[in-house]
Structures are given as structure tokens and as C-alpha cells.
Design a protein that fits this description.
binds 4-nitrophenyl phosphate, about 160 residues, four-stranded parallel β-sheet, single chain
């Protein structure tokens, strides 16, 4: 059985496309399906932000073919784990859950990290440095997650 993982931020153009691209590179696509979505509808159908595309490219990952979509309550049925980039995203996703089982699928992306407040900061209104910081946070969190997933499938 494939594990299905959804990365969620506000716009689905900066953080969650990076999270999707980074995790995909660390797992076997025959074992793990990774997708991303935004809680907002502003950017539906668009490519990731050029700054996210650039920072991913710098680290050898192509996210340019991704297209923005909005989170839908049907995602609770489709996905096993839903990772929110920050607490506002988490609250907005939880508000759409029908029951406790759906709520339990939702976690903060950085919930296991000792850093700061467990939030991936929104880099949209900042400079390029913010995107590198987001990349590093997501790379660490995805590395942990990939190790757990790879362990699950190695037994
Ligand atoms: P994201 O960043 O949630 O990481 O994709 C944002 C992208 C767009 C906007 C806000 C955050 N916006 O307000 O348009």
C-alpha cells in the first residue's frame, strides 16, 4: 500500500511546492505519493513562485512543472498524512475535517523539530534569504519523514 502525503500552505506557490519537491526526491515513488495544496484560492493553476523554483533548482530539484491547487475536504479521504506549514494553515485545515479520524491526519510539518515555534515562516513578502531558510527547514523535516517512511517499507 502506498503512503499518500499532502503538503499544505496558504498559497501553494512558495512553501508546500518546495516541501513536495524535496520529499519526492527522498522517497521511492512506488511507495510514497506526494502532493501539495493551498488553503487559499488566489493562485490556482499557477506555477510555483519563481523564487521557490530558483531555490529548488539551486539544490538540484525541478518543481517548475507543479501547478497550484486548493485544498479540498476530499483530501482527507485521499491522503494518509496532511502536513501544514504553519499554525494558521493547521487551523484552517482542521476546520474542514468531518471527524476525529480526519483531524488526526493533520500535523504541523515541523512538529518533530526542536527549532523555534514549529512553523515554516511565510517567505512571500520577503527576500531570497527567506526562501533559502524555508528550503533548509523543509529539507531537515523531509529527511526525518523520509527516514521513517523508508524504515516502514524496508521491513
Ligand atoms: P505560500 O506563500 O503559502 O508559502 O505559498 C504565500 C503565497 C502567496 C500569498 C501568501 C503566502 N499571497 O498572499 O498571495
Amino acid at each position: 500500500m502506498k503512503t499518500k502525503i499532502l503538503m499544505v500552505c496558504l498559497g501553494n506557490i512558495c512553501r508546500s511546492p518546495l516541501a513536495e519537491g524535496i520529499l519526492k526526491q527522498k522517497v521511492d515513488k512506488d511507495q510514497v505519493f506526494v502532493d501539495s495544496a493551498g488553503t487559499a484560492s488566489y493562485h490556482i493553476g499557477k506555477q510555483p513562485d519563481p523564487r521557490s523554483i530558483a531555490v529548488a533548482k539551486k539544490h538540484g530539484i525541478d518543481i517548475s512543472t507543479q501547478r497550484c491547487r486548493q485544498f479540498t475536504p476530499m483530501d482527507f479521504e485521499e491522503f494518509d498524512h496532511i502536513f501544514a506549514m504553519d499554525k494558521e494553515n493547521y487551523t484552517n485545515i482542521i476546520a474542514l475535517a468531518k471527524n476525529g479520524k480526519e483531524q488526526q491526519k493533520v500535523k504541523l510539518m515541523l512538529h518533530q523539530m526542536s527549532t523555534s515555534d514549529h512553523e515554516v515562516p511565510d517567505p512571500y513578502y520577503g527576500g531570497d534569504q527567506g526562501f533559502e531558510k524555508v528550503y533548509q527547514l523543509l529539507d531537515s523535516a523531509c529527511e526525518q519523514l523520509a527516514q521513517e517512511l523508508n524504515k516502514k517499507y524496508s521491513g
